[in-house]
Amino acid sequence: MARSVWKGPFVDAYVLKKAEATRESGRNEVIKIWSRRSTILPQFVGLTFGVYNGKKHIPVNVSEDMIGQKFGEYSPTRTYYGHAADKKAKRK
Amino acid sequence: MNQDKIIVGAISGAFGVHGEVRLKSYCADPAAIADYTPLSTESGQVFTSIILTGQVTNALIARVDGISTKEQADALKGQSLFADRSRLPAPEDEEYYHADLIGLSVFDAGGTALGTVKSVQNHGAADLLEVQIPDSSATVFLPFTKAAVPLVDLSSKRIVADPPDGLF
């Protein structure tokens, strides 16, 4: 069942605090978080979070189209190595 | 296989009794494997043309030149298929083939070695370079952005990185 709208999006308080502190400091750093359940909010856009996957922190650059998703969706807990073949990576 | 050959697929067995094969494609667009001919196997066999005739679950059906019986197709089961790197189309600006990035050495702005690129991953947010730390089994994910990776020099096989604090 979907979460009730009147409650608003769920975010662990420490994530908000860390994000705010990093934004104010203006430093280029990875914000290490363990809260995979927290919702990505508009004020997180442009920040880089290190989302824990049970083993290490996976860097996640937050962009506008990620708003409303959960952090855990971008930090898989299983490893998969496919073949490189003709796959391409784009430097943004 | 040398560095100029890239694995693009494998033959997973025969399909039917008329010499067609089941082809497993590792390409981003599975059907693109037919565009990269000639394909060669580890044993040195070369296929100059591959015609895709259909698809089944997890495989493409193809007719390969020189293979006309089920016995010949069965003999190829498990063979990996390699294409020449030069057959891949030129990537767009700021685009890089994973095969070109894997194995590059990563240095920081001061020239200190950070490791080598082990793989390129994308978990939905952005492309990430998995960097193998020297003398360790640990790996670190480096965001493949202009800010974190200001220089990619394929000719000298090196990457200059400016990783965010707390990453390495």
TrEMBL record, chain A:
UniProt cross-references to HAMAP family, sorted A to Z: Ribosomal_uS19
Known function: Protein S19 forms a complex with S13 that binds strongly to the 16S ribosomal RNA.
Name the UniProt record assigns to this protein: Small ribosomal subunit protein uS19
Top-level taxon of origin: Bacteria
Gene Ontology BP term (one): ribosomal small subunit assembly
Similarity comment: Belongs to the universal ribosomal protein uS19 family.
Organism name: Flavimaricola marinus
Keywords linked to the UniProt accession: Ribonucleoprotein, Ribosomal protein, RNA-binding, rRNA-binding
Pfam families per the UniProt record, alphabetical: Ribosomal_S19
A GO CC term attached to the entry: small ribosomal subunit
Protein's UniProt keywords contain Lyase: no
Record InterPro entries: Ribosomal_uS19 (IPR002222), Ribosomal_uS19_bac-type (IPR005732), Ribosomal_uS19_CS (IPR020934), Ribosomal_uS19_SF (IPR023575)
Molecular function as annotated in GO: rRNA binding; structural constituent of ribosome
TrEMBL record, chain B:
Subcellular location: Cytoplasm
Gene3D superfamilies reported for this sequence: PRC-barrel domain, RimM
Main location per the UniProt record: cytoplasm
TM helices/strands, residue ranges: none
Keyword Chaperone: yes
Keyword Chaperone: yes
One of the Pfam families matching this protein, by short name: PRC_RimM
UniProt KW keywords: Chaperone, Cytoplasm, Ribosome biogenesis, rRNA processing
Family recorded in the similarity comment: Belongs to the RimM family.
Function statement: An accessory protein needed during the final step in the assembly of 30S ribosomal subunit, possibly for assembly of the head region. Essential for efficient processing of 16S rRNA. May be needed both before and after RbfA during the maturation of 16S rRNA. It has affinity for free ribosomal 30S subunits but not for 70S ribosomes.
PANTHER family xref list: RIBOSOME MATURATION FACTOR RIMM
Subunit structure and binding partners: Binds ribosomal protein uS19.
Domain comment quoted from the record: The PRC barrel domain binds ribosomal protein uS19.
Name listed for the protein in its UniProt record: Ribosome maturation factor RimM
Species, as recorded: Flavimaricola marinus
